[in-house]
Amino acid sequence: MKCSHKREDCGIVIRFDGELGHHEAAQCVEYLEKTMILYATEPIFLDLSGLTFMDSSGIAVVLGAQRNILGAGQTFTVVGTPPTAMRIFQASGIVKRVQFIPELPHLPEPENEEEEPCTAKSTR
Question: pTM for this structure?
Answer without folding.
Answer: 0.83
